[in-house]
Design a protein that fits this description.
Elements lengths: L2 E5 L3 H12 L3 E5 L20 E2 L3 H5 L2 E2 L2 H10 L2 H10 L4 E4 L3 E4 L4 H15 L1 E3 L2 E9 L2 E9 L2 E6 L2 E4 L14 H8 L4 E7 L3 E3 L9 E11 L2 E12 L3 E3 L1 H15 L4 E6 L6 H14 L5 H8 L5 H8 L12 H12 L1 E8 L7 E6 L17 E3 L7 E2 L4 H18 L5
Parallel strand pairs: 1-2, 1-11, 2-7, 11-20
Antiparallel strand pairs: 3-6, 4-21, 5-6, 8-9, 9-10, 12-19, 13-16, 13-18, 14-15, 14-17, 15-16, 17-18
Helix pairs in contact: 1-5, 1-12, 3-12
Bound molecules: flavin-adenine dinucleotide.
Amino acid sequence: MTKVVIAGGGPAGLMAAIRAAEKNANVTILEKMEKPARKLRITGKGRCNITNTKPEDDFLENIFPDARFFRPSFGNFSNLDLIDFLNNAGLTTVEERGCRVFPASQKAWDVAEVLLKKVRERCRIECKAKVTGLDIENRTVKTLYYEQYGQELKISGDAFIIATGGISYPLTGSTGDGYEWAQQTGHKIVPLRPSLTGLELNGYSEIKNCMLKNVELSLLVDNRTVKKEFGEMNFTKYGIDGPIVLKVSRNAVDAVLANKKVEILINLKPALSEEQLVKRIDRDTVSCSDMRFFDMLKNLLPAPLIDLFLKKTAIPAKKQLKDLNSLEIEKLITNLVSLKFAVKGYRPFSEAIVTAGGIDLKDVNRKTMRSKHIDNLFFAGEILDLDANTGGYNLQIAFSTGYLAGEKAAALHSV
Ligand SMILES: Cc1cc2nc3c(=O)[nH]c(=O)nc-3n(C[C@H](O)[C@H](O)[C@H](O)COP(=O)(O)OP(=O)(O)OC[C@H]3O[C@@H](n4cnc5c(N)ncnc54)[C@H](O)[C@@H]3O)c2cc1C
């Protein structure tokens, strides 16, 4: 019986354990927190967006930096396989807008508990067991060292899986410990960056209580549009966040790190063509010619944006519409369709949903999740240089790579 030892009891580690046990391995998970899957329990604002039912090619478009790496693990344990697995384990799921799948109970906690129940049926799970390092001889891990209740302990095994996650939300236990061991054993680490995170704006003063719906956000890098997203976003203390901001954040963070000029443009009226907008404003200036500019803005904008527009257009609030000149009308229209801000930075790992970067995919066999440097070492989950958009894709990465790593680790001698 192959003895499989797993570092990390997040979704990747738990799924690896379940699959390895199904393949008759003797499995031990070492988890440093007092409870496994702390991060999983807070996913999706406590609701857990488990996966996404998009077909394979559409699904893979949401995976970075190299979706081809993910194809074999997704093919081996897909989004639909995951849903079947959870349903059979007793968790009912529901599909919502954007093909996103959630537990019917709307409780992320239930997803964690269903996985743990499966794990406990056939595996040993040690909590408060912090892995501290590995012992390697002849390209083979011999021992894994860990601390538990003040004691220094070690465990041997035939195959080892590192599933210690990334470094975002470190209070959940994901503090990036595994990167160090990977590096020490010859694996390259692609620089870590926060992803799915808020963006800080230059010269910005807080706009309070402003959530925008049905707007279009463009990300410009060195004056070129690199991404466009439609949907919801919020203004915050430091700048912007919300669904469409998270979607452009990966590119924005990389561009900021490369010292490029990074800007965002918000089209507040994407349903209208510029021509329609001009017509509407011309009509208002004629039919309501005595109206003050301030009142026109009240009709055009959410209230928290009015001050910003007065500043950006430099038009006095009390000016009557009949007195607006063509330059002023042009300024108003430009700001309505492309409200521009310079991006100066991004929110740190402590607030980022996911870590971009990690173990270089070139150092891992995508068909087995096995290291190309150490014969009995496997990797799974966010520790890999694999991340994704919001929408359930990141958890599917953890589940699919965990499943494959568990399967192949259990069958090590035939890998
Ligand atoms: C707020 C938030 C919301 C999210 N919502 C969603 C969502 O709805 N849908 C989605 O798809 N993705 C979501 N994600 C992303 C998703 O949670 C992660 O991508 C996923 O949890 C990664 O799984 P993992 O098992 O690789 O790593 P983790 O979940 O980070 O698990 C790693 C585990 O390893 C343990 N560990 C670390 N170091 C050691 C050590 N030295 N010894 C022993 N154990 C160790 C940790 O304690 C942890 O339990 C969200 C993330 C956050 C932060």
